[in-house]
Amino acid sequence: MASPTFGAFGPLIGVVYVSSTHCRFLIYSTKNAEVLTFHEIKLRQIVHNAGWLEYDPLEIWKNTQECIETAYRSLIILEINPYDLVAISICSQRGTTLLWDKSTGNPLCNAIGWNDCRTSTLLKTILGNINYDADYLRHKTGLPLSTCFSALKIRWLQENITAVSDAINEGTCLFGTLDSWILWNLTGSNISGVHLTDVTNAGYTSLMNIHTHQWDAKLCKFFRIPMQILPRIRSNSELYGYIIGGALNGLPIAACIGEQPAALLGQLQTKVGENVCIIDDSCFVLLNTGEELIESSNGLLSLVALKLGPQAPASYSLEGAISNAGATINWLKQGLRISTEINSNDNVVEVLSTFLGENSMISSSCSSGMLNAECGLAAKRSEITFVPAFHGLYAPYWRYDARG
């Protein structure tokens, strides 16, 4: 429980942050937003087939607990009163999809990563029934039909995992993105777990109506997903519940937000026209459009960016997404053994023409001699075009079938 008086750093806020690569718990001073301490654990990514990406939900929960406990102990070592913690928030990658049994609290399957593209065949079938119009639902969701959003992942799990279909029939199945899973466990799992999500994570499922900020019955019917498995949708800033057990027992969970909107807020890009670019394994560019919801005709996503309270107006964003950015560098290093260290030779960083011809991108390349030595290929730099479409192409093309 929080202390009635506070130390030199004032009230402290904890943040559970689960990205696509790491689980972290960070503790901030509210006086100056300084990170006082944190602990992180690298996430194990499970790849059974090309284009697939999974996570072990129990491992994520275990890592979350370890990060919280370790950061808490670090406060004591730093002689900062841990009782100065007044609340925590949850920030996570969007779109990663998980189903679990509410009676046992156990996952029914591994979590499917947001950029997993196993649903390509299912998407092709659906598109075939609607004249291949990827924007068929955009007026309701703000999104094109794509493998990266949760709806198709839920449908795939229903059709391919017996434990999932059985739990749905028995009424014990719950769906959540990673924020919901962590919240459920922090608040007591199958004993007293709270089944909620926030508007930014819900908006990345293709099941939320972008205008009402609630689950849409017609969207659920379109994807054949039972509405009873869905968590209730909340704003980004309100009381979600209280932590049960562990070092932070009794502490309120007072905020929840998706990773990319969190960057927009964290960089204080809260005015119309302000923007942020996030580059890690993937890349996202978000433009704040304020209270105006703009439907893109150029392949961008229209999403809720922020809703800072139950009665607060929503701010929207236009978002461009690239599935593979930093992950491409790792692929070049591990797959082709190409040096990607800047200035390691005069050919490392080049401007290469993309498949559009006129446009260009910064990418790693190598001399033809390096290619011969390392890759067994004979090619000149000018002949190389590298399109990192390991999970298809996202904005603005939304080509689930593209590979590179």
UniProtKB/TrEMBL annotation:
- EC number(s) in its UniProt entry? 2.7.1.30
Show the GO cellular component annotation of the record.
Answer: mitochondrion
Key words of the record: ATP-binding, Glycerol metabolism, Kinase, Nucleotide-binding, Transferase
Specify whether ATP-binding is a keyword of the entry: yes
The record places domain Carbohydrate kinase FGGY C-terminal at 276-404
Which Gene3D superfamilies would you find in this protein's record? 3.30.420.40
Question: Residues in domain Carbohydrate kinase FGGY N-terminal?
Answer: 20-266
Q: Quick check: keyword Nuclease in the entry? A: no
Give GO terms for biological process. Answer: glycerol metabolic process
A Pfam family of this chain: FGGY_C
Q: Name one GO molecular function term.
A: glycerol kinase activity
**Superkingdom of the organism of origin:** Eukaryota
Its pathway, per UniProt, is: Polyol metabolism; glycerol degradation via glycerol kinase pathway; sn-glycerol 3-phosphate from glycerol: step 1/1
Query: Which PANTHER family does UniProt cross-reference here?
Result: GLYCEROL KINASE, SUGAR KINASE
Report the family membership: Belongs to the FGGY kinase family.
Write the protein's name: glycerol kinase
Biological source species: Ceratitis capitata
The lineage, from the top, is: Eukaryota, Metazoa, Ecdysozoa, Arthropoda, Hexapoda
